[in-house]
Amino acid sequence: MGRRIGMWMYGNSGGDKIEKKIVKKLKEREIDAITDINLRHAIVKKGHIIHDKTKVDELDLFFSYNAGEQTQYQVYLYEALSRVIPTINSFEAFRLTEDKFQTSFLLQHHGIPTPEFQLCHRDDSKQLHSIMKKWSKMVYKPTDGWGGVGLTKIENEEMLNMLMPFLNQMDLRFFYVEKFVKYDNTDFRVDIVDGQFVGCYGRKASKRDWRTNVTSGGSVFKREPNDEVVELAIKAAEVCGVDIAGVDIIYDQEREEYVVLEVNGIPAFATPEHEKMGLDFNKRKIELIVDLIDKKTKKNKSK
């Protein structure tokens, strides 16, 4: 019996065309891909995860690549599925990179520079004020989430006092804060697949914001990374155990070194608009993903 995989990929911003190219390349290697496997519509019975009559747990691999539509139900099934068949990314890597504190903690533990951070219990407001006096400026970040949503720059104790009642209403168990990094309002987004450099582009914050995320008003521009940036991204992806990663890196002007802001487990491909700008890494990214799927499904078949 030939190899079969399941796919769930985003369809906006050219994602549907990327999916077709991946499916075509897989077909050339005699790997059939069942697309649109949205676990939101799956059920579990008699030891199987079933989606539209397909027993997903009997496939050779599941490729999940949709950041914006995850629900608790899908993530719950993704975890179960990852225990019985290979998944890209693995659930453990996915869960890790969805949590900013866990990611930063692991990166720093392995000697990879990140912004200074602290995790405080929600009842320890004294500690937050102590941090504020030490850092002068800091950024509150939800430990989960993407696209810059929820990030709040706190520039003085008055702002912190105003923010605390709002945070308490959210019934948070803890507060994750980072020291605000003095940088030039640009970053590097470095794509890595299976430990190999794919491509890079830059993002620049708008004049009205300090965040580089496109969803927060940032813009994309062509940017070539140096060897140090590439090596840092590859190491960060390796430490986090992600097969596919988009590593966000900025230059800390005070520390005079590059620091890793985030490791994203579902980095978008270049959109048609980005390709017109000259961002031409999609072909290489597709090839490396197909190579990765080929390798993992062969290994799974040989068991």
Outline the structure in words.
It contains 9 helices and 16 strands. Helix 1 packs across helix 9 (282-301). The protein has 303 residues and is α+β, with helices and mostly antiparallel strands. Helix 2 (72-82) links the parallel strand 6 (61-65) and strand 7 (87-88). It has 3 domains: 3-88, Rossmann fold; 116-179, ATP-grasp fold, A domain (Dna Ligase, domain 1), CATH 3.30.1490.20; 183-286, D-amino Acid Aminotransferase, Chain A, domain 1 (2-Layer Sandwich), CATH 3.30.470. 35% of the residues lie in helices and 27% in strands.
Q: In short, what is this structure?
A:
This protein is α+β, with helices and mostly antiparallel strands and 303 residues long.
Order of helices and strands: EHEEEEEHEHHEHEEHEEEEHEEHH
Q: Specify the biggest β-sheet.
A: 5 strands, antiparallel
How many domains would you count in the coordinates?
3
Structural class: alpha+beta
Q: Helical residue percent?
A: 25-40%
Number of strands: 16
Point out poorly predicted stretches: none
Spatial strand sequence of the major β-sheet: 14-13-12-15-16
pLDDT averaged over residues: 89
CATH class of the largest domain: Alpha Beta
> So, the CATH homologous superfamily of the largest domain?
ATP-grasp fold, B domain
CATH architecture of the largest domain: 2-Layer Sandwich
